Amino acid sequence: MKRLAFRNLLSRPLRTALTTLAILLGVAMISGTYVLTDQITNAFDGIFATAYKGTATVVTPKSAVGSLDGESAGKGVGASKKEAEQQAARVALARVGVSFDDVDME
Length: 106
Fold this sequence. Notes:
With 106 residues, the chain is an all-alpha fold. The chain has a domain at 1-55. It has 3 helices and no strands. It has helices at residues 2-11, 13-51, 81-93. The protein is elongated and about 85 Å long. The mean pLDDT is 78.
């Protein structure tokens, strides 16, 4: 069986060489895609780490649209007056502090 396989490979050298080249190129392209994806991921991680360096808290708004897992992300339009007053009271109690220790103002 092996003799038949090697005989067919040697009887058509161009087809064997082109098939080998195609397999090598395909493997190289997939490996290159993995390397490129890792480099992009590391670059974005570095950018975000630098951007948030020295930041204790990041404030993001609630979405008025439901989240991907089907749960409601919060009440948006149509919240009752009582809920709006409660939210306003919580906001009034919140204290915002901003620090510029790492910023050079030259």
